[in-house]
UniProtKB/TrEMBL annotation:
<comment type="similarity">
    <text>Belongs to the Gfo/Idh/MocA family.</text>
</comment>
<dbReference type="InterPro" id="IPR000683">
    <property type="entry name" value="Gfo/Idh/MocA-like_OxRdtase_N"/>
</dbReference>
<protein>
    <recommendedName>
        <fullName>Oxidoreductase</fullName>
    </recommendedName>
</protein>
<dbReference type="InterPro" id="IPR004104">
    <property type="entry name" value="Gfo/Idh/MocA-like_OxRdtase_C"/>
</dbReference>
<dbReference type="InterPro" id="IPR051317">
    <property type="entry name" value="Gfo/Idh/MocA_oxidoreduct"/>
</dbReference>
<dbReference type="GO" id="GO:0000166">
    <property type="term" value="F:nucleotide binding"/>
</dbReference>
<dbReference type="GO" id="GO:0016491">
    <property type="term" value="F:oxidoreductase activity"/>
</dbReference>
<dbReference type="Pfam" id="PF02894">
    <property type="entry name" value="GFO_IDH_MocA_C"/>
</dbReference>
<dbReference type="Pfam" id="PF01408">
    <property type="entry name" value="GFO_IDH_MocA"/>
</dbReference>
<feature type="domain" description="Gfo/Idh/MocA-like oxidoreductase C-terminal">
    <location>
        <begin position="152"/>
        <end position="372"/>
    </location>
</feature>
<feature type="domain" description="Gfo/Idh/MocA-like oxidoreductase N-terminal">
    <location>
        <begin position="6"/>
        <end position="125"/>
    </location>
</feature>
<keyword id="KW-0560">Oxidoreductase</keyword>
<dbReference type="InterPro" id="IPR036291">
    <property type="entry name" value="NAD(P)-bd_dom_sf"/>
</dbReference>
Length: 376
Protein backbone atom coordinates (compact mmCIF):
# COMPACT_ATOMS: atom_id res chain seq x y z
CA UNK A 1 0.00 0.00 0.00
CA UNK A 2 1.54 3.35 -1.02
CA UNK A 3 1.77 6.21 1.46
CA UNK A 4 2.27 4.45 4.75
CA UNK A 5 -0.09 5.56 7.50
CA UNK A 6 1.85 7.61 10.04
CA UNK A 7 0.61 6.30 13.37
CA UNK A 8 0.93 7.50 16.95
CA UNK A 9 0.15 5.10 19.79
CA UNK A 10 -1.14 6.77 22.94
CA UNK A 11 0.03 4.74 25.90
CA UNK A 12 2.74 2.10 26.06
CA UNK A 13 1.43 -0.09 28.83
CA UNK A 14 -0.06 -3.54 28.28
CA UNK A 15 -2.40 -2.36 25.55
CA UNK A 16 0.11 -0.36 23.54
CA UNK A 17 3.09 -2.71 23.79
CA UNK A 18 1.13 -5.95 23.42
CA UNK A 19 -1.85 -5.27 21.19
CA UNK A 20 -0.91 -2.29 19.03
CA UNK A 21 2.80 -1.58 18.55
CA UNK A 22 3.69 -5.13 17.38
CA UNK A 23 1.12 -4.95 14.56
CA UNK A 24 2.06 -1.44 13.50
CA UNK A 25 5.67 -2.61 13.24
CA UNK A 26 4.89 -5.98 11.62
CA UNK A 27 2.69 -4.39 8.93
CA UNK A 28 5.49 -2.05 7.91
CA UNK A 29 4.35 -1.97 4.30
CA UNK A 30 1.11 -0.32 5.50
CA UNK A 31 1.87 1.54 8.72
CA UNK A 32 4.72 3.65 10.03
CA UNK A 33 5.14 3.86 13.79
CA UNK A 34 5.71 7.59 13.75
CA UNK A 35 5.46 8.25 17.48
CA UNK A 36 4.12 7.27 20.89
CA UNK A 37 2.77 9.14 23.86
CA UNK A 38 4.84 8.29 26.93
CA UNK A 39 5.10 10.59 29.93
CA UNK A 40 8.44 9.49 31.40
CA UNK A 41 10.64 7.59 28.92
CA UNK A 42 13.90 6.19 30.27
CA UNK A 43 15.60 6.12 26.86
CA UNK A 44 15.11 8.34 23.77
CA UNK A 45 12.76 5.82 22.08
CA UNK A 46 10.96 4.97 25.30
CA UNK A 47 9.53 1.53 26.06
CA UNK A 48 9.23 0.71 22.36
CA UNK A 49 12.97 1.06 21.96
CA UNK A 50 13.61 -1.00 25.09
CA UNK A 51 11.49 -3.89 23.91
CA UNK A 52 11.61 -3.83 20.09
CA UNK A 53 14.80 -1.92 19.33
CA UNK A 54 13.16 0.80 17.24
CA UNK A 55 12.98 4.46 18.17
CA UNK A 56 9.82 6.36 17.30
CA UNK A 57 9.34 9.94 18.35
CA UNK A 58 8.23 10.17 21.95
CA UNK A 59 5.72 12.84 22.87
CA UNK A 60 4.96 13.69 26.48
CA UNK A 61 1.64 15.46 25.96
CA UNK A 62 -1.47 14.85 23.89
CA UNK A 63 -1.35 18.45 22.66
CA UNK A 64 2.04 17.80 21.06
CA UNK A 65 0.67 14.70 19.34
CA UNK A 66 -2.34 16.53 17.94
CA UNK A 67 -0.20 19.44 16.74
CA UNK A 68 1.94 17.17 14.56
CA UNK A 69 0.48 17.36 11.05
CA UNK A 70 2.41 14.26 9.96
CA UNK A 71 0.33 11.99 12.21
CA UNK A 72 -2.69 10.51 10.42
CA UNK A 73 -3.83 7.79 12.80
CA UNK A 74 -4.02 7.96 16.58
CA UNK A 75 -4.35 4.71 18.54
CA UNK A 76 -5.98 5.29 21.93
CA UNK A 77 -4.64 2.67 24.33
CA UNK A 78 -4.77 4.72 27.53
CA UNK A 79 -6.97 4.16 30.64
CA UNK A 80 -10.64 3.69 29.86
CA UNK A 81 -11.86 7.01 31.23
CA UNK A 82 -9.63 8.83 28.71
CA UNK A 83 -10.92 7.01 25.63
CA UNK A 84 -13.74 9.43 24.89
CA UNK A 85 -11.90 12.75 25.46
CA UNK A 86 -8.71 11.57 23.70
CA UNK A 87 -10.60 10.14 20.71
CA UNK A 88 -12.70 13.29 20.45
CA UNK A 89 -9.64 15.53 20.56
CA UNK A 90 -7.90 13.44 17.89
CA UNK A 91 -10.92 13.58 15.57
CA UNK A 92 -11.22 17.32 16.09
CA UNK A 93 -7.55 17.60 15.09
CA UNK A 94 -8.26 15.77 11.83
CA UNK A 95 -6.81 12.37 12.79
CA UNK A 96 -8.25 8.92 12.18
CA UNK A 97 -8.73 7.01 15.44
CA UNK A 98 -8.45 3.41 16.60
CA UNK A 99 -9.80 3.26 20.15
CA UNK A 100 -9.51 0.43 22.64
CA UNK A 101 -12.55 -1.06 24.30
CA UNK A 102 -14.57 0.15 26.00
CA UNK A 103 -14.79 2.91 23.43
CA UNK A 104 -16.64 5.23 25.82
CA UNK A 105 -18.51 5.18 29.12
CA UNK A 106 -21.90 6.00 27.55
CA UNK A 107 -23.67 5.31 24.30
CA UNK A 108 -24.31 9.04 23.94
CA UNK A 109 -20.55 9.67 23.93
CA UNK A 110 -20.03 6.92 21.35
CA UNK A 111 -22.72 8.40 19.11
CA UNK A 112 -21.05 11.78 19.41
CA UNK A 113 -17.72 10.36 18.25
CA UNK A 114 -19.39 8.61 15.32
CA UNK A 115 -21.13 11.81 14.24
CA UNK A 116 -17.89 13.78 14.54
CA UNK A 117 -16.01 11.26 12.40
CA UNK A 118 -18.69 11.43 9.69
CA UNK A 119 -18.67 15.22 9.70
CA UNK A 120 -14.91 15.26 9.20
CA UNK A 121 -14.79 12.28 6.82
CA UNK A 122 -12.54 10.37 9.20
CA UNK A 123 -12.40 6.76 10.35
CA UNK A 124 -13.12 5.96 13.98
CA UNK A 125 -12.65 2.24 14.63
CA UNK A 126 -13.26 0.14 17.74
CA UNK A 127 -10.55 -2.33 18.74
CA UNK A 128 -12.78 -5.39 18.99
CA UNK A 129 -9.89 -7.75 18.33
CA UNK A 130 -11.61 -10.80 19.78
CA UNK A 131 -13.63 -11.14 16.60
CA UNK A 132 -10.36 -12.41 15.10
CA UNK A 133 -9.70 -15.28 17.51
CA UNK A 134 -9.41 -18.96 16.63
CA UNK A 135 -12.22 -20.08 18.94
CA UNK A 136 -14.63 -17.47 17.57
CA UNK A 137 -13.76 -18.45 14.00
CA UNK A 138 -14.49 -22.09 14.90
CA UNK A 139 -17.76 -21.16 16.58
CA UNK A 140 -18.98 -19.12 13.61
CA UNK A 141 -18.07 -21.93 11.22
CA UNK A 142 -20.09 -24.36 13.34
CA UNK A 143 -23.14 -22.10 13.54
CA UNK A 144 -23.07 -21.53 9.78
CA UNK A 145 -23.51 -25.25 9.00
CA UNK A 146 -26.74 -26.02 7.13
CA UNK A 147 -29.40 -27.88 9.16
CA UNK A 148 -28.81 -30.94 6.98
CA UNK A 149 -25.21 -31.29 8.20
CA UNK A 150 -24.72 -34.17 10.64
CA UNK A 151 -22.63 -31.81 12.81
CA UNK A 152 -25.23 -29.04 12.95
CA UNK A 153 -26.47 -28.15 16.43
CA UNK A 154 -29.90 -27.43 14.99
CA UNK A 155 -31.96 -24.51 16.23
CA UNK A 156 -30.12 -22.89 19.13
CA UNK A 157 -31.63 -22.81 22.58
CA UNK A 158 -28.84 -21.42 24.76
CA UNK A 159 -25.49 -19.79 24.17
CA UNK A 160 -23.04 -19.42 27.06
CA UNK A 161 -19.84 -17.37 26.71
CA UNK A 162 -17.27 -17.07 29.50
CA UNK A 163 -14.12 -15.14 30.29
CA UNK A 164 -13.31 -16.48 33.75
CA UNK A 165 -10.05 -16.52 35.68
CA UNK A 166 -8.69 -16.98 39.18
CA UNK A 167 -7.42 -13.72 40.65
CA UNK A 168 -7.78 -13.21 44.40
CA UNK A 169 -6.07 -9.86 44.65
CA UNK A 170 -6.12 -6.48 42.97
CA UNK A 171 -3.36 -5.73 40.47
CA UNK A 172 -2.86 -2.18 41.69
CA UNK A 173 -3.54 -0.48 38.35
CA UNK A 174 -5.89 2.21 37.09
CA UNK A 175 -8.48 -0.53 36.50
CA UNK A 176 -9.04 -0.69 40.28
CA UNK A 177 -10.11 2.95 40.48
CA UNK A 178 -13.80 3.96 40.39
CA UNK A 179 -13.77 5.95 37.16
CA UNK A 180 -16.01 6.17 34.09
CA UNK A 181 -15.86 2.97 31.96
CA UNK A 182 -13.96 1.00 34.62
CA UNK A 183 -15.04 -2.37 35.98
CA UNK A 184 -15.07 -5.89 34.60
CA UNK A 185 -18.31 -5.40 32.69
CA UNK A 186 -16.78 -2.60 30.64
CA UNK A 187 -13.45 -4.42 30.38
CA UNK A 188 -14.26 -8.01 29.43
CA UNK A 189 -17.99 -7.54 28.95
CA UNK A 190 -17.24 -5.35 25.93
CA UNK A 191 -15.82 -8.39 24.14
CA UNK A 192 -18.46 -10.94 25.15
CA UNK A 193 -21.30 -8.57 24.33
CA UNK A 194 -19.79 -7.69 20.97
CA UNK A 195 -19.48 -11.35 19.99
CA UNK A 196 -23.08 -12.07 21.04
CA UNK A 197 -24.37 -9.12 19.01
CA UNK A 198 -22.35 -10.26 15.98
CA UNK A 199 -23.85 -13.76 16.22
CA UNK A 200 -27.45 -13.00 17.18
CA UNK A 201 -28.15 -9.28 16.84
CA UNK A 202 -29.91 -7.09 19.40
CA UNK A 203 -31.72 -9.00 22.12
CA UNK A 204 -35.32 -8.35 23.12
CA UNK A 205 -34.60 -8.15 26.84
CA UNK A 206 -31.62 -7.94 29.20
CA UNK A 207 -31.21 -9.31 32.72
CA UNK A 208 -27.91 -8.69 34.51
CA UNK A 209 -26.18 -9.45 37.81
CA UNK A 210 -23.13 -7.24 38.40
CA UNK A 211 -21.18 -6.83 41.62
CA UNK A 212 -17.87 -6.61 43.40
CA UNK A 213 -17.97 -10.25 44.48
CA UNK A 214 -14.54 -10.44 46.13
CA UNK A 215 -15.29 -7.52 48.43
CA UNK A 216 -11.89 -5.93 47.82
CA UNK A 217 -11.06 -2.57 46.35
CA UNK A 218 -13.74 0.03 45.75
CA UNK A 219 -17.26 -1.45 45.93
CA UNK A 220 -18.27 0.43 42.77
CA UNK A 221 -15.65 -1.38 40.68
CA UNK A 222 -17.30 -4.64 39.66
CA UNK A 223 -15.31 -7.85 39.33
CA UNK A 224 -18.15 -10.20 38.34
CA UNK A 225 -21.01 -10.17 35.88
CA UNK A 226 -23.59 -12.50 34.45
CA UNK A 227 -25.65 -10.97 31.68
CA UNK A 228 -28.61 -12.69 30.04
CA UNK A 229 -29.68 -11.61 26.56
CA UNK A 230 -33.21 -12.85 25.87
CA UNK A 231 -34.30 -13.51 22.28
CA UNK A 232 -38.01 -14.33 22.20
CA UNK A 233 -39.76 -16.80 19.94
CA UNK A 234 -40.78 -15.14 16.68
CA UNK A 235 -41.65 -15.83 13.05
CA UNK A 236 -37.94 -16.34 12.37
CA UNK A 237 -37.06 -18.05 15.67
CA UNK A 238 -38.92 -21.25 16.47
CA UNK A 239 -37.49 -21.46 20.00
CA UNK A 240 -36.55 -18.70 22.45
CA UNK A 241 -32.79 -18.24 22.80
CA UNK A 242 -30.88 -17.11 25.87
CA UNK A 243 -27.32 -15.82 25.54
CA UNK A 244 -25.49 -15.97 28.88
CA UNK A 245 -22.35 -13.83 29.14
CA UNK A 246 -20.21 -14.29 32.22
CA UNK A 247 -16.88 -13.29 33.74
CA UNK A 248 -15.77 -14.31 37.21
CA UNK A 249 -12.49 -13.63 39.01
CA UNK A 250 -12.66 -16.59 41.41
CA UNK A 251 -13.04 -19.46 38.97
CA UNK A 252 -10.81 -22.45 39.76
CA UNK A 253 -10.46 -24.26 36.44
CA UNK A 254 -7.67 -24.97 33.97
CA UNK A 255 -8.29 -24.49 31.18
CA UNK A 256 -11.23 -22.22 31.85
CA UNK A 257 -14.58 -22.75 30.19
CA UNK A 258 -15.07 -20.62 27.07
CA UNK A 259 -18.31 -21.66 25.33
CA UNK A 260 -21.29 -23.95 25.86
CA UNK A 261 -23.77 -23.83 22.97
CA UNK A 262 -26.93 -25.92 23.15
CA UNK A 263 -29.19 -26.68 20.18
CA UNK A 264 -32.06 -29.08 19.63
CA UNK A 265 -29.66 -31.54 17.93
CA UNK A 266 -26.48 -31.16 19.95
CA UNK A 267 -24.13 -29.29 22.26
CA UNK A 268 -20.76 -27.65 21.65
CA UNK A 269 -18.30 -27.19 24.52
CA UNK A 270 -15.05 -25.28 24.29
CA UNK A 271 -12.32 -24.65 26.89
CA UNK A 272 -9.33 -22.32 26.87
CA UNK A 273 -8.69 -18.83 25.54
CA UNK A 274 -7.09 -17.67 22.34
CA UNK A 275 -3.29 -17.95 22.33
CA UNK A 276 -2.49 -14.62 20.68
CA UNK A 277 -2.32 -12.55 23.87
CA UNK A 278 0.20 -14.91 25.45
CA UNK A 279 2.26 -14.99 22.26
CA UNK A 280 2.22 -11.20 21.92
CA UNK A 281 3.31 -10.67 25.52
CA UNK A 282 6.65 -12.39 24.93
CA UNK A 283 7.66 -11.66 21.33
CA UNK A 284 10.60 -9.32 20.80
CA UNK A 285 10.50 -9.38 17.00
CA UNK A 286 7.17 -8.21 15.57
CA UNK A 287 7.65 -10.29 12.43
CA UNK A 288 6.91 -13.32 14.61
CA UNK A 289 3.29 -12.39 13.98
CA UNK A 290 3.72 -13.67 10.43
CA UNK A 291 5.05 -17.09 11.47
CA UNK A 292 2.97 -20.20 10.82
CA UNK A 293 2.29 -21.01 14.46
CA UNK A 294 1.14 -17.53 15.41
CA UNK A 295 -2.48 -17.65 16.54
CA UNK A 296 -2.67 -21.42 16.01
CA UNK A 297 -4.67 -23.12 18.75
CA UNK A 298 -3.24 -26.37 20.16
CA UNK A 299 -5.31 -29.46 19.46
CA UNK A 300 -5.99 -30.16 23.13
CA UNK A 301 -8.07 -26.97 23.25
CA UNK A 302 -10.27 -27.86 20.29
CA UNK A 303 -13.96 -27.93 21.08
CA UNK A 304 -16.15 -31.02 21.34
CA UNK A 305 -19.57 -31.82 19.91
CA UNK A 306 -22.25 -34.10 21.28
CA UNK A 307 -25.15 -35.04 18.98
CA UNK A 308 -28.37 -36.88 19.53
CA UNK A 309 -29.01 -39.69 17.06
CA UNK A 310 -32.29 -40.46 15.28
CA UNK A 311 -33.38 -42.74 18.12
CA UNK A 312 -33.40 -39.71 20.48
CA UNK A 313 -31.37 -41.76 22.93
CA UNK A 314 -27.89 -42.34 21.58
CA UNK A 315 -25.39 -39.49 21.94
CA UNK A 316 -22.25 -39.43 19.79
CA UNK A 317 -19.17 -37.34 20.49
CA UNK A 318 -16.70 -35.72 18.09
CA UNK A 319 -14.09 -32.97 17.93
CA UNK A 320 -14.80 -29.63 16.31
CA UNK A 321 -11.33 -28.28 15.45
CA UNK A 322 -10.25 -24.65 15.42
CA UNK A 323 -9.01 -24.83 11.85
CA UNK A 324 -8.25 -21.14 11.34
CA UNK A 325 -5.54 -19.40 13.30
CA UNK A 326 -6.36 -16.26 15.24
CA UNK A 327 -5.56 -13.16 13.21
CA UNK A 328 -5.59 -9.80 14.98
CA UNK A 329 -3.48 -8.72 12.02
CA UNK A 330 -6.60 -8.67 9.85
CA UNK A 331 -8.19 -6.01 12.04
CA UNK A 332 -5.27 -3.70 11.27
CA UNK A 333 -5.38 -4.57 7.58
CA UNK A 334 -9.06 -3.70 7.48
CA UNK A 335 -8.40 -0.47 9.38
CA UNK A 336 -5.76 0.51 6.82
CA UNK A 337 -8.11 -0.30 3.93
CA UNK A 338 -10.84 1.81 5.53
CA UNK A 339 -8.45 4.77 5.82
CA UNK A 340 -6.74 4.50 2.44
CA UNK A 341 -9.38 2.90 0.22
CA UNK A 342 -12.67 3.75 1.87
CA UNK A 343 -13.33 0.07 2.61
CA UNK A 344 -16.18 -0.88 4.91
CA UNK A 345 -14.94 -1.28 8.50
CA UNK A 346 -15.49 -4.80 9.72
CA UNK A 347 -16.20 -3.31 13.14
CA UNK A 348 -18.80 -0.68 12.37
CA UNK A 349 -18.99 2.21 14.80
CA UNK A 350 -22.72 1.63 15.21
CA UNK A 351 -21.84 -1.85 16.50
CA UNK A 352 -19.34 -0.40 18.98
CA UNK A 353 -22.04 2.03 20.14
CA UNK A 354 -24.51 -0.83 20.59
CA UNK A 355 -22.05 -2.62 22.89
CA UNK A 356 -21.96 0.39 25.21
CA UNK A 357 -25.73 0.65 25.06
CA UNK A 358 -26.02 -2.97 26.22
CA UNK A 359 -23.52 -2.35 29.03
CA UNK A 360 -25.56 0.60 30.27
CA UNK A 361 -28.72 -1.50 30.18
CA UNK A 362 -26.93 -4.31 32.05
CA UNK A 363 -25.87 -1.99 34.86
CA UNK A 364 -29.38 -0.58 35.11
CA UNK A 365 -30.91 -4.07 35.16
CA UNK A 366 -28.57 -5.14 37.93
CA UNK A 367 -29.17 -1.97 39.94
CA UNK A 368 -32.96 -2.29 39.74
CA UNK A 369 -33.04 -6.08 40.00
CA UNK A 370 -35.31 -6.35 36.97
CA UNK A 371 -35.32 -7.50 33.36
CA UNK A 372 -35.30 -4.57 30.93
CA UNK A 373 -36.67 -4.31 27.42
CA UNK A 374 -34.11 -3.42 24.77
CA UNK A 375 -35.16 -0.49 22.56
CA UNK A 376 -35.60 -1.49 18.92
Amino acid sequence: MPNKINTCVLGVGLSGLTFHVPFILALHETFNLHSVLERNPRVPGGKVQERFGVSPKVYKSLDDVLADAEIELVVVGTPSDTHYPFAKAALQAGKHVLVDKPVTATAAEAEELGNLAREKNLVVYAFQNRRWEADFFALKRLLQLPPSSPQSLGTLLEFESHHDRYRKNLKGTWKDIPAPANGLTYDLGSHLIDQALVLFGRPDKVTAFIQNSRGIGHPDVDDYFTIHFHYVRSSTRSYPLTAILRAYNLSVRSPQLRYIVRGIKGTYIKYGVDVQADQLSVISLPNAIHETQYGREPEYLHGTLEHIEADDVTVTKSVWPSEDAGAYTDLFRNLAAAIREGAEPEVKWSEATAVIEMIELAYESSKQGVTLDVPK
